[in-house]
Amino acid sequence: MQTVRRIKYIGKIEKDKFITDNSMVIICGFGERGRKTLDTLIKKGVPENQIVLCDRRQQNNEKSKYITYEEAARFKSAVFLITNFDVRECAEFLIKRGITDIHIITG
Questions:
Q1: Are 19 and 79 spatial neighbours (Cβ–Cβ below 8 Å)?
Q2: What is the pTM of this model?
Q3: What is the spatial distance between Cα 41 and Cα 49, in angstroms, rounded to a whole number?
Q4: Are 67 and 52 in contact (CB under 8 A)?
Q5: φ, ψ for residue 66 (rounded to 5)?
Q6: Cα 17 from Cα 32, distance rounded (Å)
Q7: Residue 102 in contact with residue 91, Cβ under 8 Å?
Q8: Cα–Cα separations (whole angstroms), residue 81 to 62, 95
């Protein structure tokens, strides 16, 4: 049950009330859902310099900085948004590294 306690939110990004404009946010997975999540966060007022993109494939993005999963796990106090389809694998990786604020973003 340790996994469940660390999952703070499951649902659409538009309805995630746990993210504030002063939250550091790491988007795990930068496919279509990740891009939509990034755009929504910016519209909600989260400053672009507080949003970090994380994906297995290195990609350049003009809106935010890009890091690997291993680098992301060093930011223990950040809000981690899982937007990829490997939800279980990603959540387990983060939990094993002591991350406690995990949100699973759906469609």
A1: yes
A2: 0.88
A3: 12
A4: yes
A5: -125, 130
A6: 22
A7: yes
A8: 19, 13
CA distance 61 to 5: 32
Quote the tokens at residue 98.
């002591």
Angle (nearest 5°) at CA 9 between 59 and 99 = 65
Encode pLDDT of 39-98 as tens digits. 999 999 999 999 999 987 655 555 557 888 889 999 999 999 999 989 999 999 999 999
The span from the CA of 74 to the CA of 70, in Å, is 7
Let me know: does 29 contact 82? Beta carbons within 8 Å.
Answer: yes
Which domains occur in the chain, in start order? 7-84+94-105 (3.40.50.720)
9: three-class secondary structure by DSSP: strand
